[in-house]
Specification:
Layout lengths: L1 E10 L5 E9 L4 E5 L28 H15 L7 H12 L9 H18 L4 H5 L10 E8 L12 E5 L6 H21 L19 H14 L10 E5 L6 E2 L2 E4 L2 E3 L1 H14 L2 E5 L7 H11 L4 E4 L7 H10 L4 E4 L1 H4 L2 H13 L3 E5 L9 H9 L3 E3 L6 H16 L8
Parallel strand pairs: 4-14, 6-10, 10-11, 11-12, 12-13, 13-14
Antiparallel strand pairs: 1-2, 2-3, 4-5, 5-6, 7-8, 8-9
The structure holds 2-phosphoglycolic acid (PGA) and zinc ion (ZN).
């Protein structure tokens, strides 16, 4: 039984307001959840409730969302018996009564849902990952995808692609993967600074050098991987991209540095990158509205490369089902706050998993110290997580949580 709920307006990693939700159980124990927030959001995501009061945080305050937790949601949930997280989430979804959680706020709803899942785990005396594990799914430590170069809307540099990640696919364990990530990150910092680039950080902890061409970044990554003593590729440290192409697609053309490219030009460009560099995964390579392009991209590169839908799919089970139907993408990015409840997130993962899709659990560019996604990735056995650079507290917290889960038991590591 939930005895009380309290949401407070706190800061996220970008210094913008977000919610911290505390749930109190009848026996007095408490659990917390921190709510993440994106910058390159998909248009079909669940809607964050922001105050719009220009005198506070440029309109970005979340006092109304906090008020909804402390008022309506608390009244709705306290003193009642719920059998599981699905029952809590159903109640929240029905009470909100919009398709995008716009009334109560997806930020309010997801914070309560995450805290409630933690409460059930506590009551069951289980680690969160064990409570979240769907029946019949073997838990697994995911391959971390460290975002080591930031561009797009996550950094003030002129690089159009948003994320360049390194993935120690060939590491023997999670902790060795973290070591590889940190060592390559250090080698990359040295290389950038030797070449005269600034080594300041973007929103997700990656470096934000003034480089124009994505291929130049890929070259630097291969050098850094090699210099750190690893093999570039799937048997060592591979590369994953998230261009977040919705952000540089205007009037049907993709604006990369000084070029204006069609969808087919972009597909050619990716094909060349995949041929020349050890790129194993491309997320949001095309814009969320470019379904025809996505279908051609999947046909051309799908057999060789993981093509992850983020803005395209927004962790929405119905949209994942549509993409399966249309053969667009072959993997899903998974973000709790894109859909707004733990139960719907697990449902989106089920739909993809049962169709044989890979999935990658993800942080947002605006984060807190909350480590829920580490447990979610382990629970669902999906084999992949991205949660930023191996630097900055809010990113490292997730990787450290994975190390602790690894140390506590004997779970397998790696892609499924
Ligand atoms: P966001 O970026 O959290 O700013 O949306 C992450 C991503 O695009 O994967
Ligand atoms: Zn993305």
């Amino acid at each position: 039984t939930i005895a009380g709920l309290k949401a407070v307006e706190v800061l996220d990693s970008r210094g913008r307001p977000t919610l911290a939700v505390t749930l109190r159980l009848a026996d007095g124990r408490t659990v917390r959840a921190g709510v993440p927030s994106g910058a390159s959001t998909g248009s079909r995501e669940a809607v964050e409730l922001r105050d719009g009061d220009p005198h506070r945080y440029s309109g970005q305050g979340v006092l109304r969302a906090a008020g909804n937790v402390n008022g309506e949601i608390q009244d709705l949930l306290t003193g009642r018996h719920f059998a599981d997280i699905a029952a809590v989430d159903r109640t929240l979804i029905e009470a909100d009564a919009t398709s995008t959680k716009a009334r109560l706020g997806a930020n309010a709803v997801v914070g309560v849902s995450m805290a409630a899942a933690r409460a059930f785990a506590l009551l069951a005396d289980q680690p969160l990952w064990r409570y979240l594990a769907p029946a019949g799914i073997a838990a697994r430590l995911p391959v971390p995808h460290f975002n080591v170069v930031n561009g797009g809307v996550h950094a003030p540099n002129r690089l159009d692609f948003q994320e360049f990640m390194i993935a120690p696919v060939g590491a023997p364990s999670l902790s060795e993967a973290v070591r590889a990530g940190a060592e390559v990150y250090t080698a990359l910092r040295r290389r950038l600074s030797d070449k005269g680039y600034a080594t300041g950080l973007g929103d997700e902890g990656g470096f934000a050098p003034e480089i124009d061409a994505p291929e130049d970044v890929l070259g630097l990554l291969v050098d850094a991987i090699t210099e750190a003593g690893y093999r570039p590729g799937r048997d060592g440290v591979a590369i994953a991209l998230d261009p977040a192409a919705s952000e540089f697609c205007r009037d049907g053309l993709y604006h990369v540095a000084t070029e204006k490219l069609t969808s087919d030009d972009m597909i050619d460009r990716y094909e060349a990158m995949v041929r020349r560099y050890p790129v194993w995964s491309i997320e949001d390579g095309l814009a969320e509205g470019d379904w025809d392009g996505w279908i051609r991209l999947t046909e051309r590169l799908g057999p060789r490369v993981q093509l992850v839908g983020d803005d395209l799919l927004v962790t929405n089970p119905a949209i994942v089902a549509e993409a399966l139907d249309r053969h667009a993408a072959n993997a899903a990015l998974i973000k709790l706050n894109q859909i707004g409840t733990v139960t719907e997130t697990l449902e989106a993962m089920r739909v993809g998993r049962e169709a044989g899709w890979a999935q990658m659990v993800s942080h947002r560019s605006g984060e807190t110290e909350d480590t829920f996604i580490a447990d979610l990735a382990v629970a669902t056995g999906c084999g992949q997580i991205k949660t930023g650079a191996p630097a900055r507290g809010e990113r490292v917290a997730k990787y450290n949580r994975l190390i602790e889960i690894e140390a506590a038991g004997s779970l397998p590591y790696g892609l499924t």
